[in-house]
């Protein structure tokens, strides 16, 4: 180990990098304990920096750090869904899931924290953040499916699939990240198509979406 | 309105009925407010009884009432999954979903409370209760599928579907209980079959389950 690695406090990071590092450390701690059981000293220690440095970045102290950590995780998740509307829909969905699963993989404990309410105290705020991400994900999906005004059956299908994807990521973390990420991604895409096909039997709008997806495949 | 209906406090109920009524009223209140914002007077008023009567049933006061309300909701949910292992699996699943959706329909606000963490304070306990119900539901499903030791892919498929069913019930309540309950039930059964078929393409154990389900249909 180099002396530099042993004293991570002295690594030179940009302001943005340092901020991210502190948020990341905080999120990992809040993932395992209630905010009242996490001190700024803990965060400083986990990030390998001094307590005053944490305060310099988050003068509002723990509450500010906690909220910033959750908000940044939600924001990062939202970015996963940003995908140009080009090429076959299944391939776009696979790319979105690639980014999403990479996020889950990289942030494991923080991701669980965010999705499972984070802490016993701040649930309502966390829930609102996560609901915002869910809504954004659904809106992106409607757009990729080429639907401006999704009816109730298509909406329910998309939202159920999003819930199933969330569940799968938590289970995946629980099961030591098995099956491999690429397999999970393809499996989730196949499930999406399968549930759309089921809904298509009950809903003309979804039937049109499924027909368009089948058209993609022929391109 | 008859005088009797106007003074519900004087309806004669059995001890069990009265207890259920109090739990139901409490759950509906806790569904909308944090426990600290619900008083025993509120519960007494909602149930149309006196405050001393509430205390007679729950001498531990609000905390006891709150926990009893959540526990009873979780217990009632668990009972929905109790289904004899007779006849075609899809028909059994439809009966289970019938009971489950009837529960959701009847307890709407309380059900949302239970599933969405109930309150900003008691989340960890609520989560543990709901996780217990989820686990019980998954165990029942494995048994109905005739699988003693479900592998990771089958487990994930079943748990994802359970998450999707939960999501669908919350969305259903959100969308003024549309589509009709029977349609939602059949749709959910079809989705279960569809996602099993997808997993069957990746997992021999699930392929065997799907083959057995197809055998059911031929009976």
Description:
Chains A, B: One of its GO terms (molecular function) is DNA-binding transcription factor activity. Chains A, B: This is TetR/AcrR family transcriptional regulator. Chains A, B: It holds the Pfam family TetR_N. 2 copies of one chain form a homodimer. With 219 residues, chain A is mainly α. The first copy, chain A, has a domain at 73-218: Tetracycline Repressor, domain 2, CATH 1.10.357. The first copy, chain A, is built from 11 helices and no strands. Residues 1-8 of chain A have low confidence and may be disordered.
Defining key terms:
homodimer, 219 residues, mainly alpha, Tetracycline Repressor, domain 2, elongated, disordered N terminus
Question: What topology does this entry show?
Answer:
Two copies of one chain form a homodimer.
Chain A: H1 3-6, H2 15-32, H3 40-47, H4 51-57, H5 61-80, H6 89-106, H7 108-115, H8 123-144, H9 152-174, H10 181-200, H11 204-218
Helix pairs in contact in A: 2-3, 2-5, 2-7, 3-4, 5-8, 6-10, 8-9, 9-10, 10-11
């Amino acid at each position: 180990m180099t002396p530099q690695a042993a004293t991570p406090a002295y690594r030179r990071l940009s302001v943005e990098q340092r901020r991210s590092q502190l948020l990341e450390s905080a999120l990992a701690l809040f993932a395992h304990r209630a905010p009242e059981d996490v001190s700024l000293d803990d965060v400083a220690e986990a990030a390998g920096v001094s307590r005053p440095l944490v305060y310099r970045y988050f003068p509002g102290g723990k509450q500010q750090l906690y909220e910033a950590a959750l908000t940044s995780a939600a924001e990062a998740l939202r970015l996963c869904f940003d995908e140009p509307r080009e090429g076959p829909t299944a391939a776009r969905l696979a790319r979105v899931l690639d980014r999403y699963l990479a996020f889950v993989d990289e942030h494991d404990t923080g991701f669980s924290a965010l999705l499972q309410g984070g802490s016993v105290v701040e649930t309502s705020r966390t829930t609102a953040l996560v609901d915002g991400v869910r809504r954004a994900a659904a809106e992106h999906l409607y757009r990729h499916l080429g639907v401006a005004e999704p009816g109730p059956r298509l909406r329910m299908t998309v939202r159920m699939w999003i819930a199933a994807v969330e569940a799968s990521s938590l289970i995946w973390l629980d099961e030591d990240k098995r099956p491999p990420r690429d397999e999970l991604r393809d499996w989730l895409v196949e499930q999406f198509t399968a549930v759309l096909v089921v809904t298509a039997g009950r809903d003309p709008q979804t039937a049109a979406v499924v027909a368009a997806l089948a058209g993609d495949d022929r391109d």
